[in-house]
Write a structure and sequence with these properties.
The chain has about 210 residues and is mainly alpha-helical. It has helices at about 5-35, 40-50, 55-75, 80-85, 90-110, 110-155, 165-170, 190-200; strands at about 160-165, 175-180, 205.
């Protein structure tokens, strides 16, 4: 037996999804390009707008996949960078084409030591930008742990902290207890409470990982 569909509920859901797409598309698009690395964006733009010989049907298919990714994700969540990482190889196709255009221009207009120097500077710029962005991402990822630990240091110094990673206890100048026993990937709520009591845990940190 089929489940009856209320037209009013369906219309409301579609309208809600439409508003989410409008609201979240800029954020999803930003995180998608952020996943490419800032240094690749100029090459990506060159590749997209170049007039070189290429397989247009394949490019339209890839573009359709990327647009579908952005719009469907925007209908659910504002997103973050990790949701776009699986599609980065598709977008890097255009970035690679842009790099090829820059390399061809260098070959046509430069030679000798000047050409070598520009190519080395070109590679150093890409490597340096990528490294800088990676290090920044790592620092920002740990920032919340540091802030939590410093708060504990100010209000509960020397406390016993149960968490996934030891950063909070380190900055709080306290003691760390692992959230999960060594070698375990899951623990029941009752066992977690018993483990916390056994180690006299005062604060438990849950970071959605």
């Amino acid at each position: 037996k089929g489940v009856p569909i209320n037209p009013a509920d369906l219309t409301g859901s579609l309208v809600s999804a439409g508003f989410k797409v409008i609201r979240n598309t800029p954020s999803v698009t930003f995180h998608f390009f952020k996943a490419l690395f800032v240094a690749f964006l100029p090459f990506f733009a060159l590749g997209v707008f170049s007039r070189s010989t290429r397989n247009r049907p394949v490019e339209f298919m890839v573009a359709g996949i990327l647009v579908t990714h952005v719009l469907s994700l925007a209908a659910i969540t504002p997103s973050n960078t990790r949701y776009s990482v699986p599609l980065v190889p598709l977008a890097l196709t255009w970035a690679a084409m842009g790099m090829g255009m820059v390399y061809d221009w260098i070959n046509q207009h430069l030679s000798g030591k000047r050409k070598t120097a520009v190519l080395l500077a070109f590679l150093a710029l890409i490597a340096g930008s990528s490294l800088s962005q990676n290090l920044g991402s790592l620092r920002s990822h740990r920032l919340i742990h540091k802030e939590s630990g410093l708060w504990l240091r100010d209000y509960a110094p020397g406390t016993v902290v149960m968490s996934r990673v030891p950063h909070e206890a380190f900055y709080a100048e306290g003691w760390h207890v692992r959230l999960l026993p060594k070698g375990r990937r899951f623990i029941t709520y009752d066992n977690l409470l018993r483990r916390a009591r056994e180690h006299e845990v005062e604060y438990l940190v849950e970071d959605n990982r």
